[in-house]
Amino acid sequence: MTIESSGAPPVHGKQKVQRNRLVRFSVALISVTFAFAFSVYYSQGRWQFAWNPQSLLAQPEIEEGSYDLSSIVVLNRVLLQLQENYVDSERFNAKWMLASGLNEIQNSVPEILAVFDRPVAEEPTEVVLHVGNSEKTFTFADVESLWEMSLKFKEIFRFVQQKVDGNIDPHKIEYAAINGLLRTLDPHSVLLDPDVYREMLEGNRGNFGGLGIIIRMIEGKLYVVKPMSLDTPAVVAGVKKGDIIAQIDGNATLNMDVADAVDLLRGEPGTSVKLMIERASEWKGLKEFDVVRAEIQIPSVESAALEDQIGYVRLKGFQGNTYKDMVSHIAKVKAEMGGLKGLILDLRGNPGGLLDQAIDISDEFISDGTIVTTVGSGKRYRKPYPAHEEDTQSDIPIVVLIDPGSASASEIVAGALKNHDRALIVGETSFGKGSVQVLYELPQDGSALKLTIAQYLTPGDISIQSVGIVPDIELVPISAEADEIDLALTKWVRRESTLQSHLDHENTIKNEKPTEILRYLLQDEPQTPVAEAAVAPSPGDTPAPGIEPSPEGTVPVEQGLDPTVEEDLSVAEQLEEELVDEEELSPDKDPQVRMAHDLLVDAGKTIDRKDLLVNLKGSIEKLAKQEDDKLTQKLAGLDVDWTNGPNPETPLIALSLKTDHPDGVYKAGDTVTLEVTLTNNGPDPVHRVYGITESSTDRFEDHEVVFGKLEPGQTITRTKRVKIASAQQSRGDRIALKLYSDAVNASPDTVLGEQNLDLVTEGKPVPHFAFTYDILDSDGDGLASEGEAVRLRFHVTNLGDGVATQPASFLKNLSGPSAFLTDARLTLDALEPAATTDFAFGFNTRASEAETLEFEFNIFDKSLGRTVTEKIKVPYGARKADWMQKSGTAVISKSVARLRLSSADHALVVATADKGQRFKLEGSLGDSVKVSSKAVQGWLSKNEVDIEGDSTQPLDEFDLVYTGSAPMVTLSLPSMSTDADRIKVSGKASDDGELRDLYVFVYNEGNHVRESQKVAYQRLSGQKSDFDVSVPLAEGMNRIKVVTRDDDEMEVSDSVYVYRR
């Protein structure tokens, strides 16, 4: 992402011109309608708008809980910014934007269904909007401009606000509409909600008050992955990598969200935080560490001194301190080596950042000319950014490393150095994001609009939009092992050009090719710095939660609680993924860095890029020959003849593709064996033939089958084994195998032959968890009181048809310091259908003013990915003076008695019993008695039981009432693959309580782009319901997702996959 500082002048012209134009526009619009009013004000270095239907003077902040959706305050503000600042107003299509906004709303709010008269992308002319049981038709015929679209949204929102569930946040609806309409413009314009915006500001600022450690949650424990540097407050205090942080300022971290841990660790510089740390290798139990917070610089630059006075600098991002840090690192490396004969600038995996930093970094190496030019708002605004001669490092040969993860600001630097012939570009083609975004704060609600306001042109007015920076020397890593041969770059890579609604520019260089292509054999698992970037945020986009290990004080990573993640790795193995020795990640062990190093050594003092390409041609050819010989030798050991030679103009080869199941039907968890046979029917040999699979599922995508050389009449058969995931849902898939050749006279993109086959995967029967719980408190009164040890006993039943083979459970504290978890995570034995298991988690209570303590209970199956998550409450209060322990037998006197969690009348019902059943009496409190069975205990009203003495008869068991039980859904289809454009999905929904509703989505997942459409919404009632839905199908893979909710707002979703041929 390239963000221009909100305090900088706008790229599209002088502020006085903009102000006059906006005032004239305001007057004209007010003359058309009195529904809107404008005020123009100067803030943060730019003229801005407040647009409010209620006020001609100012736009007040939105008060919590008082927002009128039909006022469309945020939406109107966004439309004003679009009108004045968007890069290309010709992309505005009001009908499409309106439909896309409504489509996003229906995807976000279950009760809303929008039925358009044609597909959203084809400019619908009307919509039938269903909100619950109400519906209304809205025409789009009168929507031709942004402002007419605004009026239509106002009309629609008035209807929605009247009919929608009052518990739904109106901001959620408006935000969805805005992001839906922005999605039609380009992939990078987006409305950031207040929380995401705050985190973005923190990250781009490059510093915060914290401890300087990277943390990760693994199996419920908070681990220190590593310090961010050797002088951070945590290191100074004695914290080490691998430590377990058990408590933060008295708060137990067991099962805590990483985001919550970050909030506790973060604070004002100079303040202290108390950590209780477990380090089993040095002490038993916990040890206290007092750590004083300091301002932490988020490192975006790394460096190393290589052999032969070659320096290495890696830029991981472009934040406020990146340029300054890069200059310091170069100076440090130069001093360490006693000189600098060449520099490797590593931009791989760098998703971008601040525009001014990219300009300053480019200026460091370029003495004159234009670094970059931004062009916005229909080419009316053009701003070149020139280089400056002073302090330029113009005498150092440079190699820049890039890859598909290099985006935006990275491409500005790489493009400037390439087009000025200042550096040799090596690696893979970059992402291709040639646009500039600006953040506009929306003070009414704390959100912000990230808006594309310009495209940038590299020197020579060359755009890289959707094409990227093509390297001078393309590096192709290859491997040849017995279990995997990989000779080609992945055919599909996520780049700007693969994103929906991406921008284009007429000044791009189409079909540019690298000057040289260099394949190199990976001897071991590649150790490149890009390993970290491989899971980084999408290039050019806003970093989102759940991406990478979390520096405390920044947006957190995945929380280690996803049951489907790393299920086969031990804690030590998971930590080892992060606790990699610095030596193993050092640049001199990175093959691409080594090659860049060798190129610079051979380059000598040559600075000019074109001269470098000429002078290094011999070195590149020599290196390519060495690597090719290595590969040929390695493949020979795998019984593949990789001898090179010319192919006939039209090779006569016959290809067959089949599997070990003739019917093509497999079950989830099976291994598919693909058998590929190739025969050379021609009179001449063919050389270096290999096949690559393409598929509608990633699991069968991009597998290589290598044949090598085939003599005339020779037949070679290869097999490839691919395991289907145990959790795979039912689906149909198509697999294509395409043949290519790397022969001396072959084009690498020419397909020599192709075969297809269809597979069907039958999903396994799955478990369906339901649970309830009771309270085991130490004083027995059914309340959690200050200073008391409490255990929550859970009763989990598998109501599904499948075995839970790897069930596990954990409890998360949502009550802050009022509760302190002592044990709250457990791996369970396999749970058969209809079986029940009991287990307990414990916590200690502290002072609280609340009447309940809140927790989140999770039960899941690691292998099948089935999960139930629900918030539960435990009554809290002072000990009850009238609680009395008693013994005896409680006999049910009513036809049905309800066992409650506590003595309160409104307490949760956890079980029932029938008249005459007998249970153990535990005590009494007010109008209730406490009773127990072997499995569960709780409270009954005194008028539901007769009390007798101790019983000599066997006691009975309660019937559990599940508080945590999502609805069950079964789906059926006539086929997993079809030629038809629609298919009927039938199913049954059931619940132990009352069903609420059901809604259906279809996702077209063809060409690696997922388009969603909500196709049905039904109100349900009762405990069982049958349904039939006609679902439209696009060509390729279609995922049909059915979501069912009950009256407790618990929901379950199930999916099937249909391939349309």
Characteristic terms for this protein:
1061 residues, single chain, 8-stranded mixed β-sheet, alpha+beta, 2-enoyl-CoA Hydratase, Chain A, domain 1, 16 helices
Report on this model:
With 1061 residues, the protein is α+β, with helices and mostly antiparallel strands. The protein has seven domains: 2-193, no CATH class; 207-297 and 530-584, PDZ domain (Pdz3 Domain, Roll); 301-521 and 591-610, 2-enoyl-CoA Hydratase, Chain A, domain 1 (Alpha-Beta Complex), CATH 3.90.226.10; 653-762, Sandwich (Immunoglobulin-like); 769-879, Immunoglobulin-like (Sandwich), CATH 2.60.40; 881-963, SH3 type barrels; 966-1060, Immunoglobulin-like (Sandwich), CATH 2.60.40.10. 18% of the residues lie in helices and 37% in strands. The protein is built from 16 helices and 63 strands. The strands form 14 sheets. Strands 16, 17, 18, 22, 23, 26, 27 and 28 form an eight-stranded mixed beta sheet that branches. Strands 1, 7, 19, 20, 21, 24 and 25 form a seven-stranded mixed beta sheet that branches. Strands 9, 10, 11, 12, 13, 14 and 29 form a seven-stranded antiparallel beta sheet that branches. A hairpin with a 4-residue loop joins strand 16 and strand 17 (310-315). Mean pLDDT is 85; it is low at 1-60, 525-569 and 579-584.
Number of strands: 63
Derived from helix and strand composition plus strand pairing, the structural class reads: alpha+beta
The chain-level mean pLDDT equals 85
Q: How many structural domains can be distinguished in the coordinates? A: 7
**C-alpha-based Rg, rounded:** 32 Å
Cα shape: globular
